[in-house]
Amino acid sequence: MEFRQVIRRRRMVRDYEQRPLDTEVVRRVLEAGLRAPSAGFTQGWAFLVCDTPQTVARFWAAATPPAAGTDRWSQGMRRAPVVVVALSSKQAYLDRYARADKSGADRGEAAWPVPYWDVDTGMAALLMLLSAVDEGLAACFFGVPGERVDDLRGEFGVPATYRPVGAVTLGHPAADARAPAPRRGRKGVDDVVHHGHWGRTGYPAGNALPPPRAEPPR
Q1: CA distance linking residue 167 with residue 152, whole number of Å
Q2: Contact between 105 and 95 (Cβ < 8 Å)
Q3: What residue segments make up the domains of the chain, in order of their start?
Q4: Does the global pTM surpass 0.85?
Q5: Distance between CA 90 and CA 95 in Å, rounded?
Q6: Alpha helices in the chain (DSSP H)
Q7: Which of 32, 106, 145, 185 has the most CB atoms within 10 Å of its CB?
Q8: How many CB atoms are closer than 10 A to CB 6?
Q9: Mean pLDDT for each consecutive 10-residue tract of the chain (218 residues)?
Q10: Burial annotation 59-76 (CB, 10 A radius, 16+ → b, else e)
């Protein structure tokens, strides 16, 4: 599949078939995430993979409130055979930038304009979402409620130095699975791009990417 087609086909899918995934496919999705950029090449991420009915059930029990799982959205999500929890380590970045080839400063976080440990881990999760599309799978990225983080850590032995940035469900989409229709529609270039100065919206149409070529039937 061409890259432009992968981008255009990416959707957050919330309903899955209950059938297992090939471990090699899951491994390729995970390996794609490892190609994400990271500040200082710190790679301060980790990924907890739940890929059996038992571990997936433990994830949902630990990461969601006791009353969750009864609505249609939750039931469809819980049928996914694989859940990957993406975790970031702030300490890994503070330690990395205290080394001599970087700032060599103390290990405080005041010098960081944004928490790149979370940004980088989010980019790794996005590459997994795109890789899932390329593999013909469905995926969805979602957050772990803050009040459930300690339960998740305790259930799976996750060190306190790692924080879940989010989780990715992976699986085959249900036959009638559809992403929820956007209420406001997808914003375009003219809505969000400021060309050279704030307020100069849009970008010349002549520089737009050509539309993707039609896929052959399969």
Answers
A1: 12
A2: no
A3: 3-187
A4: yes
A5: 9
A6: 3-9, 23-33, 53-63, 72-78, 90-96, 116-134, 149-156, 189-192
A7: 32
A8: 16
A9: 91 94 98 97 97 97 82 86 98 91 73 93 98 97 96 98 98 78 78 94 73 50
A10: bbebbbeeebeeeeeeeb
